[in-house]
Structure formats: C-alpha cells, structure tokens
C-alpha cells in the first residue's frame, strides 16, 4: 500500500482553514494577506482558530511582505509572534530568513528553532530565493528545521521536478522536502511520483464573492475575498492514491 502522503493547504482566514480541514487537508499553513504572499495572522485569528480545531495548524511568522532580509526590530517582532503562537498551543510554525548575500540566515533561524521548541519549524519559500539550493538545504538542516517548503527556485514547482527530486534524495531522513506552488489536483500525483516527496503543499485558492446585497457603485470595487476550493482539495486527495 502506498505511503500516506501529507497534504498541507495554505489558507488566509479562519473560515478557510476550517473549510480546508473539513475537506480533508492534513495540515494547514495559516496566513493572512494573500496579496503580500502571506503574513503573520492577527492575534484574534490565532486565538480563534486554535480554539476550533485540534488538527495541525502552522501559522506563518512573517512581519511583512517583500524580501526576507529583516532588521533587528522586525526580528524582535518575529520572536514575539513565534512565542505567542507557542503560548497559544500551535504545534508548529513557518519562518524564513535570508542574509543580504542570498545565503540562509542560519544564526537567527537556529535561534528561532530553539525559541519555538518543541514546535516543528518549517522553512518557507524564502529558500527559493537563496543563492545555492544545495548549500541552502544543508544550512537549513543545521538549524533544526523539520521541513522546507519549496517550488524548486522557479514560480511553479511542476517546472522544477529534477531539482525537487535531488533535494529529496539529499535530505534523506534529515528533513522533509515539501513541494509547493502551482500544485493542483491535475498534477499533484505526478509531482509526488516523480520526486519521491512524502508531503505536498497547495493553496487550492478560490475567490469568494461578497454576500453584500448593496455595494456602492461609486467605489468601483470588486469585493471578493480569498477562500479555498473544497472540491479541489478532495480531488487532490483522491488523486494522490
């Protein structure tokens, strides 16, 4: 029988997290601000979600959009948010820090891993901006992170199968390689089969229309918000086996 494949779904609201879990997601990457690529959820969102599920939810700890080179003030924010997630009872969190030269910021990453213990720490797609993916992987392993979320240093992971396969082989049993970005029901099985990965990451995004009966026409706004496609999640799970 095929090994269980873990499906992680990235979401941008409490409601979307609950919908994804109901559809069968094994783990949630919990973010806010999809247009910024995902930032740290608010305290209210973190406190509410942890009270509504006992399934694995890993909040992203990212103080802003843009790059992953953080000032001392921003690093203090990261530490404070990570401790908050730990105090609330989250089993893991998602971080990513780089140095200006494109290397992994191992010093700060290791400090965060130690601070968060016993939480699991995932190093996110900041990895895809590092200057050497093989050296970068070894650097992340040295910090104690449990997994690396990566698209293989290109926008769509389906275009980086050889590199993902190489990373999986190098990682062996030292760290989990989590392929993500562009993962949908029509390609998830191919990615798993061709790389040997045991976990996979998708946002399964769906734009939800506003339920407002009135929308001021003078504002010329499209009041949609980001949710998840529950049918897409269910189909992905069906296709993985």
Could you please describe the fold and organization of this structure?
It is a single chain. The protein is of the alpha/beta class and 241 residues long. It has one domain: TIM Barrel (Alpha-Beta Barrel). Helix content is 36%, strand content 17%. The chain has 8 helices and 10 strands. The strands form 3 sheets. It has a 4-stranded parallel β-sheet. The protein has a 4-stranded parallel β-sheet with strand order 4-5-6-7, covered by helices on one side. The protein is globular. The mean pLDDT is 96.
Keywords for this structure?
8 helices; single chain; alpha/beta; 4-stranded parallel beta sheet; TIM Barrel; 10 strands; 241 residues
> In percent, how helical is the residue content?
25-40%
CATH superfamily assignment?
Copper homeostasis (CutC) domain
Write down the overall mean pLDDT.
96
CATH third-tier fold name: TIM Barrel
Number of domains: 1
Tally of separate helices: 8
- The CATH top-level class label: Alpha Beta
C-alpha-based Rg, rounded = 18 Å
Which residues form runs of ≥5 with pLDDT under 50? none
Q: Order of strands side by side in the largest beta sheet?
A: 3-2-1-8
Provide the succession of SSEs: EHEHEHEHEHEHEHEEEH
Helix-strand category:
alpha/beta
Number of strands: 10
In short:
This protein has helices at 14-23, 43-50, 72-88, 106-116, 133-143, 161-171, 188-195, 230-239; strands spanning 6-11, 27-30, 57-59, 92-95, 120-123, 147-150, 176-179, 199-202, 205-208, 225-228. The chain has 241 residues and is an alpha/beta fold. A four-stranded parallel beta sheet has the order 3-2-1-8. The chain has a four-stranded parallel beta sheet with strand order 4-5-6-7, with helices on one face.
